[in-house]
Amino acid sequence: MGTVLIVDDEASILEILHETLSLEGFGCEKAADGNIALSLLKTRLFELMITDIVMPGLGGLELTEQAKKLNPSMPVIVMTGYIDEYTYDKAIESGASDFIKKPFTAAELLMRIKHVRQQEKLRVMSITDELTGLLNRRGFFNLAEQQLKIARRNDQAIFMVYADIDNMKDINTRLGHQEGDIALIDIAQLLRTTFRDSDIIARIGGDEFVVMTIGSDENSLESISSRLQKNVDTLNSSNLRKHKLSLSFGISSFSTEGSDSLDTLLTQADKLMLEQKVLKRKS
Question: Is residue 14 part of a domain?
Answer without folding.
Answer: yes
